[in-house]
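Table S5 (text form). Sequence records supplied for joint modeling of the two-component complex.
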Amino acid sequence: MTQVSMTVNGKSVSGDVEGRTLLSGFLREHLSLTGTHVGCDTAQCGACVVHVNGEAVKSCNMLALEADGADVGTIEGQANADGSLNVIQQAFQDHHGLQCGFCTPGMVMSAAALLKENPRPTEAEVRKYLEGNLCRCTGYHNIVKAIMAASGQDVSSIAAE
Amino acid sequence: MPKDSGIGASSKRREDVRFLTGAGNYTDDINVHGQAYVHFLRSDIAHGRIKSIDTSAAEAMPGVVKVFTGKDFEGVGGMPCGWEVTDKHGAPMQEPPHPILAQGKVRHVGDPIAAVVADSLEQARDAAEAIDLDIEVLPAVMNMKTAAQDGATLVHDDLKNNICYDWQLGETDDAKVDEVFANAAHVTTLDLVNNRLVANPMEPRVAVGEYKPGTGDYTLFTTSQNPHVIRLLMCAFVLGLPEHKVRVVAPDVGGGFGTKIFHYAEEAFCTFAAKACNRPVKWTSSRSEAFMSDAHGRDHVSKIELALDADNNFIGLRTNTYANLGAYLSTFSSSVPTWLHGTLMAGNYKTPVIQVNVKAMFTNTVPVDAYRGAGRPEATYQLERVVDKAARELGVDPIALRRQNFITQFPYDTPVALTYDTGDYNGTMDKLEVAADLAGFAARRAESEANGKLRGLGINCYIEACGIAPSNIVGMLGARAGLYDAATVRVNATGSISVMVGAHSHGQGHETAFPQVVADMIGIDESMVEIVHGDTSKIPFGMGTYGSRSLAVCGSAMVKATEKVIEKAKKIAAHLLEAAEADIELKDGQFSVAGTDKSVAWGDVTLTAYVPHNYPLEVEPGLEETAFYDPANFTYPAGAYACEVEVDPETGQVTVEAFNAADDFGNIVNPMIVDGQVHGGIGQGIGQALLENCAYDEKGQLLSASFMDYAMPRADDVPFYGVDHSSQTPCTHNPLGVKGCGEAGAIGSPPAVVNAVLDALNSGGKAVDHIDMPMSPSRVWAAMNS
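The corresponding structure-token record, covering 947 residues in total, follows.
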């Protein structure tokens, strides 16, 4: 067991982990931050995306020890200070960008990272960026629409609600 | 004007807030104090005889609580099948045992052989590697056609052959069918494969079993679409436990698509082991494990023949299908290639003579069961592909050929056992032609061709049968369960309402849509109504969510229970208003006396029901009603879909450029949610048509056992979709007039994509009449260059 310390959603945390403990496991099992989901074991699905030092990272593909000293953001830290949904979260609700909700935390975290580096992405850019996030419910239609809406673009001409 | 609340409003989903903030409560988020973890040692060969299992080294490993093998389950029931199909000779299907852990033989890669329970998951995994197995490898039974031959290797030694059943529906007189085909002006024949798929809800399956020795109570937390069904099957057929001592909870569930209907061995194991180990036991599937233990879908090999007269009227249809059931019978597997497939072979067409033949096969593969659509996509794919091929052979417009043969009179009795209550197939086709701008296709094709691409338009029609029922009929057809559902409407003293429903929401938005109905009936705000689901200790006995049944069946039960509540509330209101009950009207949450200005509010009546001081003595206090609803018939959503693709003639790469759906779902409660259901179905259908394939090699090794090998559709594989559901013929036999929308997209889209690709190739002068799914670039390129 080795001690690991990091900042998660602005709070200092630490714990004793095995060398093989993944960051996703540390967040879920040690910190009870169960909003970060694990949907695969090959770093393909993106349900576990978190922010590590501002970058979108698949937390199932990083050892907890590799995040020692890092600034980590998870879905639990995304809402506004008053607890209301942030712009991306609100766009997902407004445009029905989620169904079962399992991929949603990773989608929201990826969307935040995308909009940080590209504030007004085109449809093609959104789709390309989401290549590492699988959703089985929505057919992606409303996820792409929600992210474009969150970037301030008019999505009213996109087919259907 | 779109409505802003109640039936017909696109109310935003209330469940979204918890999912968007990481506050969902999925089964893997549940940890019970003192829990141990189980890791299953699964077979890495497809077929073998277990000669010995030595667990002694594993038992001595750190943290190990107990190691289980098949021996620990001798005398315990096996996993049951919920539908007994009778074959065409009148014999019951062959039904081999399906033990919780393998006994004697392993029959597919992933078959669980042993289970290690340990203090931590890592310790359980480590210990499983120390189990010493001696398994004699046997030839794997993989090809369905050779598996059906005399002398084939047997998957189950005690069965007479590998054929579960040889089933037939429709015209039983072969000579009559032969005569129809002999007299036909044209016959179109097509051999095709409906590729094996894996449902892959994003949340892998999880089970947590708990036992309280003090009371003898069990709790199973599980990723299920139907907790009461799991409790019944596990208690009555597997573990022999009294139902009232077992609570099954399916909390937030991350998608199902059919594969979480079934009762799985891991659920029974965790429940059993919790008592045997005297500790809660948790199992979380990895994705790789999911690929080899979740029931798969589809996997039909079919030959279909369509006979047409000289005027291009369909006069006969014959199909012969080999349906893969895998190594064991999963819970509803036997019903999928039969009553959920053969009955749909009429489609939208008035073909007078239809014969459906199905041989269901045991093979050394993962069990196959219902996946979104379940039998109906397999039927639609065959039918709509052969109709399209016939149009090409005859040189007629594929839409005109379909329209000419549409059923237009309702109710309509098909030759394959169904009665369609209502529909308007020309209506949805009219909507599609406009929505998809079919008139502009030629210009779009010219533009694609100018860019060096081939463009194709694929049309498809579908009919679906949802809300399978009524129970007495399905019982005669072999169902071992009722197919009603139930709801309890509990009005609280202050007027808010909890509705306990048998249906389970795992993405469908019941928590939002169901309250719209109840609130609309009473005239109160939707926020006053909440839905409770997923916990057998809270909800009435309902059959859960599958087959697009939730609103049509459980929603109907909810309407009936709400009607009972309103009826009783009117008695109380009449007493308070000193008026006759018959004169009481309920509108906008106010009970009033007809023709007067006397009224009393909903909340005053509900408070009176629980504080019955000024109260009609003949009426019981309280305001809570339950209703069970058993539908009189299926519901029949239908529609027409159009797909436009571009094919790169250099590489065979297919790009879906446009996809439009025109569906008739009858009345609609929440259009936003309905659109989302169609989007998701189309996404999965495009996945089946272009990307997804669950592949085995000839030795039974599963080649696609991760998202690295199994190509799930990603955001850049699909376009925006157009969805139109303005053509509405309400269901005639349920109180809401609703039909079900969950599976339509997955049923209607694969043939549209394939038809579009073939249209593109033929427009480029390539006379290709079929490509099996998934239409990968290599398959398309090979077809173009053969």
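Note: Chain A has five helices and five strands.
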